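Recall from the previous chapter that SMILES is a line notation for molecules. Here it describes zinc ion.
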Amino acid sequence: MKLKFCGAAGTTTGSQHLLEINGKRILLDCGLYQGSRKHAYEINCCFPHFDPKSIDAVILSHAHIDHSGNLPNLTKKGFTGNIFATHATRDLCQVMLADCARIQESDIDWLNKHRKKEGLEPVSPLYDEQDAEMCLRQFVTVSYNRPIPVVDGVAVTFLDAGHILGSAQVLLEIQDQADGKKKRFLFSGDVGRGSNEVLRDPVVVENVDFLLMESTYGGREHEAPPGYGDHFGEIIRQAVKRGGKILIPAFAVERTQQILYMLHELFERGEIPEIPVYVDSPLAVSATEIYRLHPDAFNQEVYESLFDKQNPFGFENLTLVRSVNGSKALNDLDGVALIISASGMCEAGRILHHLKNNIGDPKTTVIFVGYCADNTLGRRIRDGEKTCPS
Ligand SMILES: [Zn+2]
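With both inputs in hand, we obtain:
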């Protein structure tokens, strides 16, 4: 058995690990490396560690782009095998890979302008929306806790990881033909910290011989402790008193749905006034619809509310906004309104125009609910910078 780290080792993003066993090659995740456009393109375009045609199967831990985002490029470059994933991961990949393809296409214009200045030939996007759609045809979806054969002598079982909808720890049960021994190999994928508002807790897997584990936040305190809904409610009440817009920059997948669930609970309990709420991000709207289709991933509380004929991610005063015109119309709203929009770090997306239109108004409240990397606009606002240099 041989394992090669082809990304996300010594760095974050670009998760790709190649496992060779019984003469077969299994790729664990096929993520995009996310860094500066030029550097990222060079790393992502060509799979320097292996030939895509030589891979027998892919196992995908979850739909985040740093784990799934290079799959359309892998299939475009000749991988023809199965991509094993949970049902929810496949559904999220359908919207997230298409969204990623659109970003690739706009990034390439920027990259080619710079290549032209350096006298270099233009390059094509890593993949387009059609490539993203084609790659979905190779998915084989599996429920949690159902072992399924992947290649000779290897079965995979997906176990709860509690990270995003559909996320899984990947347990490989291997009959190693080299030494005749049985081995249990666990690839953790990204692991949640438990007590998630929506998802079940990660499973503790026993009797593992080999553990391949993510450790991105291993050395850091998390910003918000579990159960911060009460604190969130207090902030909303203060913002409502101020009487202006409430803007929440949030990642389209997972964080947006967690906020919707918390708002649903706060409205239900009458702890915050019935203010209009808008989700203004096409990807977040699609992801929210997908969440409702996968009760198997939810913790007991959310699961039960689904069967009480409630939508835990919806409420009367919620409007989901897909169209550009619908988004622009939010500029003309008077009075209190809460707008959840991507991106979470305020680097792109519709949140930018909401910030531009409202941040100068002292009645406006901006609530950050997630991590903002250094040098991002979100971090600069949080750090109290008064002006934007660009
Ligand atoms: Zn992740």
